[in-house]
Every structure is written in C-alpha cells, then in structure tokens.
C-alpha cells in the first residue's frame, strides 16, 4: 500500500469516527434499555459477506423464532459484492444495502437512510463484526432504543449494549452473537 493510500485511509477513518460520534448526539432518538421479551419491533443488521450457509440457516431460524414470539423483525442486509442480490427479502421486512447504495465512506445513501430512520425499533442487533463502517453508521442514526453490537474500541457511542466476542471462534461468530445478544438482552429491566 502506498503512503498516499495510507494517509487517505487514515483521514477517511478519522472523518468517519467523528461523523459517527456527532450522529449519536442528535436529540431525536431516546435511548434506553429494552428487555428482548418486552420488545415489539427488533431490527437486525447482517453482513452477508461474513455469513456461511449454516449462519444464514441459523439466522433464518432465529428470525422465525422472534416472529413466533410476536416480534416484528426488520432486517438491514449488507452485501459488499458489486453484483449482489438480497437473500432475505421474501421472508422479512428489509432494506438491502450493496455498493451501489453506499458512498466512499461506506455510509448508506440518503434514500436508504430515510427508509431506516422511518422505523421505530425497540432493539437493533448488529451481526456485522467486520471492519466495514456501514453497520456502525446505521446503528448511530437508527431510530432504535437499544442498540447492541460487538465490543469494538472507538465505537462505544454506537451502542447501549456491547458484547465481547472472542476473535478466534473458527466460524462460530454468528451463533455466538445470537447466544450472547439473546442472553444479555433478556437480563435488561426497564
């Protein structure tokens, strides 16, 4: 990587983190802790590039369980491959984000942001453990009372609940996230 590219990437990251922090200071969304059993509408951010076939099956099962428990599920599906198509569109209310719908900073277009902001979520779970900023940005502006994600230094302002997921899970990241999120979100009392 050239020195110019490195400088540009550092500037991009610095600007992005500053933008994320400023979004969280907006007074529009009241943040609070919501127990998953009391939640009515749950959002999920899924990065399809990080999911195996087994992960997708497990996520479908989890979505179906939430629906069976009378939860409305809203899915924000990310796929960073240029010629990608949605995986979950037919099974759940969703927004699909691919390279044609994000800018240079990995932030979604204003049209996509508008669709996400319209939703009033009790809980938003981020199942994207990648270094991409898209999901963290979505968590920062989403109209969600409780935002849940993995512990990532520098992004504490994106979540009310952060879970420490061990880095070496040998492909078990999604199952571990589901277990951890479910466990900790059931412990919250309003």
Low-confidence stretches: none
Helical proportion, percent range:
25-40%
Quickly give the structural class.
alpha/beta
Please tell me the CATH architecture by its name: 3-Layer(aba) Sandwich
- Terminus-to-terminus distance: 49 Å
The total number of structural domains is 1
Strand content: 15-25%
From N to C, what is the helix and strand string? HEHEEHEHEEH
Q: Give the overall silhouette.
A: globular
User: If strands are numbered along the chain, what order do they take across the biggest sheet?
Assistant: 3-2-1-4-5-6
Average pLDDT, rounded to a whole number, is: 86
CATH topology: Rossmann fold
The main sheet comes to: 6 strands, parallel
Report the radius of gyration as a whole number of Å: 16 Å
Q: Determine and state the CATH class.
A: Alpha Beta
What's the total count of β strands? 6
Figure out the total of helices: 5
Task: Describe the model.
With 190 residues, the protein is α/β, with parallel strands linked by helices. It has one domain (3-186): Rossmann fold (3-Layer(aba) Sandwich). It contains 5 helices and 6 strands, in the order H-E-H-E-E-H-E-H-E-E-H. The chain has helices spanning 3-24, 53-68, 110-117, 134-141, 173-186, and strands at residues 41-47, 72-78, 93-97, 121-126, 144-150, 161-163. Strands 3-2-1-4-5-6 form a 6-stranded parallel beta sheet, with helices on both faces. The longest helix is centred in the first third of the chain and has 22 residues, at 3-24. The radius of gyration is 16 Å and the shape is globular. The model has no long low-confidence stretch (mean pLDDT 86).
